[in-house]
Amino acid sequence: MSDIEFQDRERARMAKLARHLLDLDRCPHGRHQGDRCFDCGEGISPGNPFLPVGTRIGTTLYGQPIWVPPRERRNDPEAWLERPTAPAERRPLAILNTSIVTADGQYTVRTITPDEAVTLAKEATAIDSAVGHEATAQVLSQLLGVEVPVNRQVFEQQVGQQAVIFKPNGRLPQGQELSIEDLGRIGFTLKLLTRIA
User: Fold this and answer.
1) Is residue 28 exposed (0-12), middle (13-18) or buried (19+ Cβ within 10 Å)?
2) Taking the domains of the chain in order of start, what are their residue ranges?
3) At 166, is the secondary structure helix, strand, or coil?
4) CB under 8 Å to 7, separation ≥6 — which residues?
5) Which of 11, 43, 116, 197 has a CA-to-CA distance to 158 between 20 and 30 Å?
6) How do 107-112 and 65-67 pair as beta strands?
7) Which CATH superfamily is domain 93-195 in?
8) Which residues of the chain have pLDDT under 50?
């Protein structure tokens, strides 16, 4: 293979990669953020629910965070290295103490580590607690390093919103509330629930 052929092949590969990157802002129905989408709730594509503006998606070779920039700056390579100052499109991180789907829609769910949960909480624009038990709220506050208040609200997860679910690995007798000691003894699992449509 000649140098010219190799360079042509590499240019074609990079162009294909660029097309994939440009597709990262599409909604689950294939429409770019801001474009008309009759399948999205308000008729306009909100973009990729997995990559809302202000989400940290990686780290450079030199340890610099990589962030999802606002739509109008996505063609600027430098914008991916600047944390957006006003991530208006991001929704608060919900904290739930049960695995529950609170609204019709499409969701993804996966198990996450405590470290992942801490990163999500610390990088969130706000915390929306729907935790109804004092002991669970205390454990989550200690675990996540942010205040998780007791809040017996009627919670409805929004499209694009993420929720950290705290799930104890066992149960106590009916009517008995879990204490911090109980939660430490029986253990727990953390899940990330994302509403995508």
Assistant:
1) middle
2) 31-90, 93-195
3) strand
4) none
5) 116
6) unpaired
7) Uncharacterised protein PF08960, DUF1874 (3.40.50.11170)
8) 86-88
Residue 144 CA: distances (Å) to CA of 83, 103, 136: 21, 26, 12
pTM for the predicted model, two decimal places:
0.58
Amino acid code (one letter) for 156: E
The predicted pLDDT at position 168 comes to 83
Structure tokens, 86: 């006003």
Among all chains, which residue has been given the structure tokens 């904290």? 95
Cα dihedral across residues 93, 97, 100, 102: positive or negative: negative
Q: Give residue 112's Cα distance to chain centre.
A: 11
Site of tokens 């911090």? 180
The residues facing 166 across adjacent strands are 190
pLDDT the model gives residue 19: 82
Query: How far is the CA of 177 from the CAs of 74, 131, 133, in angstroms?
Result: 48, 13, 8
Tokens encoding 92: 């608060």
